[in-house]
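Board notes (copied after class):
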Amino acid sequence: MNFTKHFSEEEFLTSQTAIKYKINNFWLDSIHRDNAIILCNSYLEIIRKNLEVPLILTSAYRTEKINSLINGNPRSRHLSGEAVDMICPLLTCDELSNFIINLVKTNKLNKFDQIILKKNYIHFGIRIKEGNRGQILDENYLLIETL
């Protein structure tokens, strides 16, 4: 099922770790799926539409077991469907994050919670209930900027 024109439920549930360990990576709560739909409609689709080139989700929803296997943060927004790791094959991670930041600064995209700049991807997360902080962090989780 497609959440939006460019993002599917299957993308959110696909996990190389789940495949490797033969673990089911399916929504543990319907609110997690609802969160992923909000993330897609209110953020990812807008980024993709303005970027005009594909975004690839390298990690999205995770069960606690999968998160534990990859040594993920126990409070990760991936667990609630509120975060993705992504790349754009035509842009560096810095270019992609700067593009997203510019969308926020020009009021084309709502403020997100966090972008974490990793070497080979960016982590993009939102906080639906708590409100977004607009933080940009480096790979060591040090604050670079707050929008």
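Comment from the instructor: Strands lie at 56-59, 83-87, 114-117, 122-125, 135-137, 143-146. The longest strand covers residues 83-87.
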